[in-house]
Specification:
single chain, 493 residues, mainly beta, 5-stranded mixed sheet, 7 helices, globular
Length: 493
């Protein structure tokens, strides 16, 4: 993570588990959905896992996704940062260095207090570029969220931890901490296990190891993560299927990377200012664990010169008025272009951040903001990083089984949800979209709001759905939908 160059105003995107499980009453495919709510959190540096060499942000102010889950028996409630840039599910313990000497605002877990926990080994190691690490045990225990329980999920317990966050990594199992590269470049996969997404498949909670992420715009109070399905109401234009590419550093499919084919700056109605670079195509990690975007150095230099961005103490700074500009930074992929508005990139500093700058003998002039695009540093093996600044403008579907990414431009603030389940098999994302377009497709269930009431779903997507996790008004809405549509909406609590 970069030093103080960070997002200003530490916000948590809290996954409000007023969430749902969509299970087809006519066929096997299922989906587990979360709606997260954006909330303010206390200041503090929250870092992400880095078992690949990509730049990290030492954020005082960042956006993270936090799922409220319960672990073990009796249940212990903790919050987990969902991270597409790592693969392990691990939790701090109350006696760790972090929790005893500082704080653990996301909660802690004690394996000894759970009757369903089972010790496996003491080989857990989570490494961070800065701000500490965690070591401890691998165990299994039951994890409940969104009205479902994943039985015997393998996870790490950070007995010796100096890291603030509990992490829910959702990348490939080959990215797990226990997997190590040998000197000859081969992988030692002894001990590799089913992490949370394939484990949900093996227990019949979802049909395929897939999930979708929709963050909505920078001012939105809620977004969704949907395991095992796509929500077609959340994007506009075609959903382009892209291959996940090998990590240039390892030569392996061990990270959620796609090729970026171009980056340009569009100045709002004028002729696009092409940013020249020799690095393209460039492998880029799609990572919810980091708030900003990193690009090749010459691309950053060209963007900075066009927008009058300066770098002070390693921090990219700009005029706050850029947030009101109609200009966009446009990212090209095979058959797809994602335009990121500057308002999603420009961040207003808080008093905490201004104080941090003061400690470096630098004063930020009034009207100065942080610019959320950084140049690649020399130790990153050339890999770009597409964090939250980018992901707010893209609807992304991750297919771990077929090593594919589905991507489209975000549909900001749509009304309702249109759930398309992704079945197992090589068809993956494309097959789900084809099924959704079939004339025989019927109305799906809807994603509930953060208040627990269900939003109406547009017509014509998939099969009828059972929904869990709703109470009160939500169940009344489902009952009404059943009367109006003739579909069966069965509570599964």
């Amino acid at each position: 993570m970069k030093s103080i160059a960070s997002w200003m105003a530490l916000c948590l995107l809290v996954l409000d588990l007023t969430s749902v499980v969509f299970a087809s009453s006519a066929s096997v495919p299922k989906a587990v959905g979360f709606e997260f709510e954006r909330k303010r959190a206390p200041a503090g540096a929250l870092t992400k896992r880095s078992n690949m060499d990509v730049p990290l942000l030492n954020t005082q102010n960042s956006f993270i996704y936090v799922a409220n889950v319960s672990v073990g028996s009796p249940p212990q409630n903790v919050s987990m940062q969902i991270d597409t840039g790592s693969s392990d599910f691990w939790i701090n313990t109350p006696d760790s260095v972090q929790c005893t000497q500082r704080s653990c605002p996301l909660g802690t877990y004690s394996a000894n207090a759970s009757t369903t926990s089972k010790y496996l080994n003491s080989n857990f190691i989570a490494s961070y570029v800065i701000d500490g690490n965690a070591t401890g045990d691998f165990i299994t225990d039951d994890v409940s969220f969104s009205g479902v329980t994943v039985k015997g999920l393998e996870m790490g317990v950070g007995y010796n931890s100096t890291c603030l966050a509990n992490i829910w990594g959702v990348s490939f199992p080959v990215g797990e901490a226990i997997v190590a590269y040998q000197p000859n470049g081969t992988l030692n996969t002894a001990g590799m296990y089913n992490n949370s997404v394939p484990q949900m498949v093996s227990q019949g909670l979802i049909q395929s190891p897939t999930y979708s992420l929709w963050m909505n715009d920078v001012a939105a109070s809620a977004g969704t993560i949907l395991f095992g399905a796509i929500d077609t109401a959340k994007f506009q234009g075609p959903l382009q299927v892209l291959p996940i590419v090998t990590d240039p550093a390892s030569g392996k499919l061990d990270a959620l990377m796609v090729n970026v084919t171009s980056i340009s700056l569009s100045t709002g109605g004028g002729v696009p200012l092409t940013v020249n670079a020799t690095e393209f195509p460039q492998a880029a990690v799609l990572d919810t664990g980091t708030p900003t975007i990193t690009v090749p150095t010459d691309v950053f230099t060209n963007i900075a010169s066009q927008l009058n961005v300066t770098v002070v103490q390693g921090v990219a700074l700009c005029d706050c008025a850029l947030a009101n500009s109609s200009a966009t930074v446009d990212f090209g992929f095979a058959g797809l272009n994602i335009s990121v508005p500057l308002k999603s990139i420009v961040v207003v500093p808080t008093a905490v951040d201004l104080e941090l700058f003061a400690h470096t003998s630098q004063q930020l002039p009034p009207g100065t903001c942080i610019f959320g695009i950084d140049p690649l540093s020399t130790g990153n093996f050339g890999n770009m990083l597409l964090g939250d600044s980018f992901l707010r403008s893209a609807y992304v579907v991750y297919d771990l089984a077929n090593s594919q990414i589905g991507m489209a431009a975000t549909n900001f603030n749509p009304k309702g949800s249109n759930i398309v389940e992704i079945a197992s098999g090589s068809g993956g994302i494309a097959a789900a979209l084809k099924a959704a377009a079939s004339p025989s497709a019927t109305t799906s269930g809807s994603m509930p709001s953060a208040t627990g009431t269900s939003s109406s779903a547009p017509a014509a997507t998939t099969t009828s759905a059972g929904v869990s996790g709703l109470r009160g008004e939500g169940k009344q809405v489902l009952a009404l939908l059943g009367v109006l549509t003739g579909l069966t909406f069965s509570a599964m609590i």
